[in-house]
Design a protein that fits this description.
With 251 residues, this protein is mainly α.
């Protein structure tokens, strides 16, 4: 007879299987690209073991390929991963009665996918055992896919290997699409960032152009979103005021 905690861990593992299926091909592509860039097999595996950030890992190896320095890569990784501060805070608030040391460990397993799964999960499943099971299977899949990519790199033709960099763009599209569906103005922000990257690329190295265009695009985007929310509040207040006036007239 399984204990309640063991059942929760198993339930979390089952929930993580769809994520696992998606993680393996992306991490395999990452490993192949990393080896092509010049990283050793050990460095490639350690990157997945210690970082667990698909978009950032793919971006980092692509920046290495164009000769970016350590500072540019660290800055770009920080900017892209800053969303994890919000996601981790949300996840940890949902996990009740969990000690701080355990929260620090579980926070490492927060990804876009585990965050999305937990945010729609039933309240009774929002506990440390469920999340630990889901995070463990997704983390294991990412590391396993990386090791698989290292093994396959020897057998995959060079033409196929070179085309695997498309995984970076596919992953960024996957991150962006949910936001675009919620608010089409996100497309304006993406367009602004692209234009900024092109303009900055005329004066700076491509790596610094990526870092600064991402940062400036995010700042401009936050102002656009804030203004839109203020307009919505103003419209709502006007509607309420108009409703009050009509009510007074009828009375």
């Amino acid at each position: 007879m399984m204990s309640k905690h063991s059942m929760m861990i198993l339930k979390g593992i089952k929930k993580g299987v769809p994520i696992m299926i998606g993680f393996i091909p992306i991490s395999t592509a990452f490993a192949v690209i990393a080896l092509q860039t010049g990283l050793s097999p050990l460095e490639t595996v350690l990157m997945s073991v210690m970082l667990l950030a698909g978009a950032s890992q793919l971006m980092a190896v692509n920046m290495l390929a164009i000769g970016a320095g350590n500072i540019e890569i660290i800055a770009a990784t920080f900017i892209i991963n800053i969303r994890h501060l919000i996601m981790s805070t949300y996840v940890m608030n949902k996990l009740k009665d969990v000690s701080k040391p355990l929260k620090l460990i579980l926070a490492f397993g927060v990804t876009d996918e585990t965050f999305a799964m937990l945010s729609v999960e039933e309240p009774e499943n929002c506990n440390s055992y469920f999340f630990a099971g889901m995070a463990a299977v997704t983390y294991g899949a990412w590391v396993l896919g990386t090791m698989l990519g290292i093994l396959l790199n020897t057998f995959i033709p060079a033409s196929i290997c070179s085309s695997m960099s498309i995984a970076l763009y596919a992953m960024f599209i996957g991150l962006i699409m949910p936001s675009v569906q919620k608010n089409h103005k996100v497309l304006y922000i993406i367009g602004i960032s692209i234009v900024l990257n092109i303009v900055l690329g005329m004066f700076l190295t491509s790596s610094w152009a990526v870092v600064l265009s991402t940062l400036l695009g995010g700042i401009i985007g936050s102002k656009i979103v804030r203004r839109e929310k203020q307009d919505e509040r103003s419209n709502a207040d006007c509607t309420n005021d108009f409703g009050d006036v009509r009510s007074n007239l009828h009375s």
